[in-house]
């Protein structure tokens, strides 16, 4: 859920590259744009992701933008 919390450490950092199981599945994901407003959830679906050992690894890397 997008909350628009603005703290010193996170101010403006809302554009991420998304990795699942070590594989980039989306580049420059903008949570604010995708949510369309504060308090709205975002649901993403990705295909061809192999989950091993009952563990899904999700990483959001700041793309250095926004």
TrEMBL record:
Q: Which UniProt keywords apply?
A: Kinase, Receptor, Transferase
Entry keyword annotation includes Ligase? no
GO MF term (any one): kinase activity
Record domain Malectin: where:
8-66
InterPro entries cross-referenced by the UniProt entry: Malectin_dom
Supply the name of the protein. Answer: LRR receptor-like kinase
Q: Whose protein is this, by species?
A: Trifolium medium
Taxonomic path: Eukaryota, Viridiplantae, Streptophyta, Embryophyta, Tracheophyta
């Amino acid at each position: 859920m997008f909350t628009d919390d603005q703290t010193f450490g996170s101010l403006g950092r809302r554009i991420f590259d998304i990795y699942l199981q070590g594989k980039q599945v989306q580049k420059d994901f903008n949570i604010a744009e995708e949510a369309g407003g504060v308090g709205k959830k975002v649901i993403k679906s990705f295909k061809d992701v192999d989950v091993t050992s009952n563990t899904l690894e999700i990483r959001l890397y700041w793309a250095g933008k926004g």
